[in-house]
């Protein structure tokens, strides 16, 4: 009797589901098969969440300005920036096993221009700035693309963290005030259309070289190993995306990933100011220095699985120890 009832119940359920036009097994299978694809495209959106968490911390801090200003007379934002830096540094250590090599090349008491390779999302820049601030108590000013300043809530982040749209004159003035400044000549273009071969895509951009010459400061080359394996831009329809970018100047190429690959930022030796170098020659010299860092620390073409394995094993380091 119980068996008959159970069969009747299953039959009724099957009829109901069929009547509604829903195949439960099909939906379960499709969800299971597509889940990795869904996750790889949704994970990059979590970086937006981290940015807004940063904004909330800074906004709450600003609301209590009167209470906190006495505690940090020299630098009102110091406590908030340390909190935000600790948040990003912890995330980098947990998710990517983040390491920063060559920190001794970053000066504390003198200005310098840090020039870095731009990944699909420059998550490595946020980790590097946080680590430098926590260890050396030196805030790195950053040049960002103009579209970021149109995002809601961005001003509360850009003000204390010293993020600027950047012109040659404003960048030069910042350096002349004895600050550190980070810039990527490739910018959004390199971010969207770079690939796992890690070629620099600077075109004829040498504004950063003009800044360094005008401010008479050294340039420090920076590269992060596996940054292209953490985030990837889709390669399908490259010409289509390029046309849209040239028309809008907006980063519209879909991004997927945030894979927990090993990230190591390598800070190279400073390239000293040379009054005899033109902006074009200095650009070539800096590009060669970054390409050398890529050659030393990155296997090309990049591979996500290999980058994941480097969380526990780094053949590049092992080979160096043997020589």
TrEMBL record:
Signal peptide: none
Domain (Phospholipid/glycerol acyltransferase): residue spans on this chain: 100-223
InterPro entries membership: Plipid/glycerol_acylTrfase (IPR002123)
GO cellular component: membrane
Any Pfam family matching the protein: Acyltransferase
GO terms of molecular function: acyltransferase activity
Keywords: Membrane, Transmembrane, Transmembrane helix
Domain of life: Eukaryota
Transmembrane stretches, start-end: 33-61
PANTHER family recorded: MONOACYLGLYCEROL_DIACYLGLYCEROL O-ACYLTRANSFERASE, TRANSMEMBRANE PROTEIN 68
Name of protein: Phospholipid/glycerol acyltransferase domain-containing protein
Annotated organism of origin: Acyrthosiphon pisum (Pea aphid)
């Amino acid at each position: 009797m119980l068996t008959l009832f159970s069969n009747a119940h299953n039959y009724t359920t099957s009829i109901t589901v069929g009547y509604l036009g829903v195949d439960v097994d099909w939906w379960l299978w499709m969800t299971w098969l597509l889940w990795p694809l869904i996750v790889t495209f949704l994970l990059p959106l979590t970086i937006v969440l981290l940015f807004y968490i940063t904004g909330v911390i800074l906004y709450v801090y600003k609301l209590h300005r009167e209470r906190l200003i006495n505690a940090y007379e020299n630098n009102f934002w110091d406590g908030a920036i340390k909190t935000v830096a600790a948040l990003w540094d912890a995330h980098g250590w947990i998710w990517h096993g983040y390491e920063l090599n060559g920190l001794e090349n970053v000066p504390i008491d003198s200005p310098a221009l840090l020039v870095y390779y731009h990944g699909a999302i420059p998550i490595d820049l946020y980790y590097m700035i946080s680590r430098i601030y926590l260890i050396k108590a030196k805030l790195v000013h950053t040049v960002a693309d103009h579209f970021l300043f149109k995002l809601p809530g961005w001003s509360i982040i850009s003000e204390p963290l010293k993020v600027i749209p950047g012109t040659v004159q404003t960048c030069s003035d910042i350096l002349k005030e004895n600050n550190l400044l980070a810039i990527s000549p490739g910018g959004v273009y390199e971010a969207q259309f770079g690939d796992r071969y890690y070629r620099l895509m600077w075109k004829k951009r040498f504004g950063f070289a003009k800044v360094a010459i005008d401010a008479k400061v050294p340039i420090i080359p920076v590269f992060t190993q596996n940054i292209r394996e953490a985030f990837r831009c889709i390669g399908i329809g490259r010409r289509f995306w390029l046309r849209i970018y040239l028309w809008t100047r907006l980063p519209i190429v879909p991004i997927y990933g945030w894979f927990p690959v090993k990230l190591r930022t390598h800070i190279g030796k400073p390239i000293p100011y040379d009054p005899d170098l033109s902006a074009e020659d200095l650009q070539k010299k800096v590009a060669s220095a970054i390409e050398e860092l890529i050659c030393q620390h990155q296997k090309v073409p990049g591979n996500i699985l290999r980058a994941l394995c480097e969380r526990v094993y780094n053949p590049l380091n092992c080979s160096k120890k043997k020589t």
